[in-house]
Structure prediction request, 616 residues.
Amino acid sequence: MSKLLIVGTVAFDAIETPFGKTDKILGGAGTFIGLSASFFNVDSAIVSVVGEDFPQEYLDLLQQKNINIEGIEVVKGGKTFFWSGRYHNDMNSRDTLATELNVLADFNPVVPQAYKDAEIVMLGNLHPLVQSSVLNQMTQKPKLVVLDTMNFWMDCALPELLDVMKRVDVITINDEEARQLSGEYSLVKAAAKIHTMGPKYVVIKKGEHGALLFHNKEVFFAPALPLEEVFDPTGAGDTFAGGFSGYIAQTGDTSFSNMKNAIIYGSNLASFCVEKFGTQRMEQLQKEEVLSRLQQFKSLTQFEIELE
Amino acid sequence: MSKLLIVGTVAFDAIETPFGKTDKILGGAGTFIGLSASFFNVDSAIVSVVGEDFPQEYLDLLQQKNINIEGIEVVKGGKTFFWSGRYHNDMNSRDTLATELNVLADFNPVVPQAYKDAEIVMLGNLHPLVQSSVLNQMTQKPKLVVLDTMNFWMDCALPELLDVMKRVDVITINDEEARQLSGEYSLVKAAAKIHTMGPKYVVIKKGEHGALLFHNKEVFFAPALPLEEVFDPTGAGDTFAGGFSGYIAQTGDTSFSNMKNAIIYGSNLASFCVEKFGTQRMEQLQKEEVLSRLQQFKSLTQFEIELE
Prediction:
C-alpha cells in the first residue's frame, strides 16, 4: 500500500445553485481530494490548517475514511478558511460571494514524520510557496508529484508557480488556465509548451467536456459522464485529482497506460461529486456504485471497428 | 453497395479566418457531405441546385468522386447560393458577412429515378419543406433517414421542422440547438425530449468537444481529435454527417453498435476537413490517412482497466 500525501485546504463552503443554497458546510480542496482518494486502498494523509471553529465531527469524518489528519493544524482562537459562491444557470460559471482566508493567510504546512517518504504527493490548489514547502520536507524523492493550480496564482505568484512546476511530474489545470499559462489557444500546443516548463504529464480539465492527458506526443481523453442534472459542481476538479492520485497510489504504476485508467477513475468519481451539495455524495459513495459507473464509461467510449 | 441519397446546398463560400481569406470557393452542405461519404464504398447522389455561374470543374470534381450529379439542377441565368463568413480568433464563433440565396430561394428538389429507392437518405441542412419533399419522392421506405438542421429553422419554420422530424430516424444538431429545440439545458434530458419528437437516434455535435449519440437509455461519445491548429471549421459538421451516413451506407448496418463506429468515422473525417480552407483537404484525402487517424482515435479513447 503506497503512501499518498495530500496538501490542500480544509474549509467551510457556502454554495448557491439554481437548485438551492447551503449554510456553511464542509469543503476545501484537501477535503475533496482526500475523500475521493479514500475510495482506493491507500495510506493517505492531509496537510492543512483549520481554526478553532472547525467542528470535530468533520475531522472525525476524515479519520473514518482512513485519512491521517495529524498534519491538519488546528489554530487556537483562529477561524477556518471560508469560501462562498453562486453558480449561474448553466452551472459552468460562478460568482465568488466571499473569500475569507483567516488561518490560511499564515499557513505553514508541516508534513508528519511518517509521510515524509510518501511515494505519491498531491499538491492541491494553494499558494505555490506552500506547495514548494511541502516538497522541501520530503526526505525521499517521491515516485510521482501531482500539482493542481489555478489562474489566480498565474496572476499573483507566477515566478513561484514556475519554480514549483519544475519539481512536479503531473500538472492538472483547466483549459482556460492552460491557455493563459502557455499563451497558446490550441490545447495541443499549450500542453507542449507546459511540458517545457517541467511537468512531463499535462492534464487539461474541460469540466463537462472531459479531460485530456498529454505526454510528449501521446494524448488520451476521458469524457465526463453525460448527466441528467449537475446539482453542485463544487469540488469536482479536486475530486478528479483525488481519484487520479489515489488510483496511482493504489496501483503504484506511473506508466502512461496506467495514467489513462487514473483519469477515467478521476472522471468517474467527479461524476458522483456533482450529484449533491458539497461532500454529501462522496461521503456516502459505495465501491459498487463506482464499479457500475465504470461500466458506463466503457459503454460510453469503447468501440470495435473492423478494418478491411 | 447501398445507395446514399444526399440533399444539401452546393454553393460558393468566401471565408475569413485568422489565417487568411479566400475568394469564392466551392462550398455547401451537400458538397461536404458528398465528399466525405465518397470515402466509403457507396453509390451516392446529390440533389441540389446551382446557377449558370457554377464552374463545370466543380461538377466534374464531384463526378470524379463517384457522386451522381443528375439531381443537381443548373438554373439557366441563375446565380449560385453564396455564403460568406468571418471566424473569430477562437474559431468557435463566426459572423455571417453575406447570405445570397439566389437559385436556392425557389429550390424544388427532384430525386433522380434511380435513387428513389435509396436505402440511406441524408437530409442536409435546408428548409424542412425541401427535406420533406425529398422524402415524399421516395418509392420505398429507406432503411435509415438522417436529418441535419439548425437554429435558423427552429426560429422560422418550427412547425415544418417538427413535421419532417417525425419521419426521420436520426437527427444531428449542435448542443445549443438541442437545448433550444427541447427547452432542456442538460443534454441527456434534451436528447430524451427530442426522442419523443420522432428521431430514435439523437446525435449532438459539440464541435471541438466531440459528439454524443443517444438512443433511449444508451449513450456513446466520440471525441474530436485534439489538433495543433484548426485552419477553417467551415463544413466540419457536414463532413461529420457525410462520414456518419456514408459509413452506415457502406456497412448496411443500422444497429446502435455500428452507429458508434459511424460517429467515430464522422469525427475522423471532420478532423481532416478543418485542416485547410474549404473542401481542399477533403479533395486530396487518401484512405491510408483516414485509417492511420483511426488508430489515433483508438489511442485517444481506448483503455484497459482490470477490475479487482
In short: Chain B has a mean pLDDT of 96. The longest strand of chain B covers residues 43-51. Residues 3-301 of chain B form a domain with the UDP-N-acetylmuramoyl-L-alanine:D-glutamate ligase fold (CATH 3.40.1190.20).
